[in-house]
Amino acid sequence: MTKTLRPGRVFIDWSQNNPAKTTIAPYSLRGRDRPIVSTPVTWDEIRACRQPEQLTFTADDVLDRIDNLGDLFADLGNHRTTLPAR
Q: What sign does the CA torsion over 50, 51, 54, 56 have?
């Protein structure tokens, strides 16, 4: 796992497939008692965050965010890079 032990290599974390993990796709509802949404945020929002609740979003919150900020995830496909060959 340690980057210094794998220079030029990408670590594929297979353990993220564990049922206890909550990693999901952007804009998906998390399977919890209070279904919050996996939501892209801006670096400014991260810098301004003082409590985790500030970056917790409901389905209604996300729709308002998209109206105000646009789809923060939309540009992802335009940023590609080549992984180094082994």
A: positive
State the chain's maximal CA–CA distance in angstroms. 45
CA dist 20 and 12 (Å) reads 18
The answer to whether the beta carbons of residues 5 and 12 sit under 8 Å apart is no
The tens digit of pLDDT for each residue in 25-80 reads: 899 998 888 889 999 999 999 999 999 899 999 999 999 999 999 999 988 878 77
CA atoms within a 13 Å half-sphere pointing along the CA-CB vector of 35: 9
Cα–Cα distances (Å) from 46 to 12, 49, 55, 77, 81, in that order, read 26, 5, 8, 22, 25
Please state the pTM of the whole predicted model.
0.63
Cα separation of 33 and 15, whole Å? 24
For 64, the enclosing helix (H) or strand (E) is helix 59-69
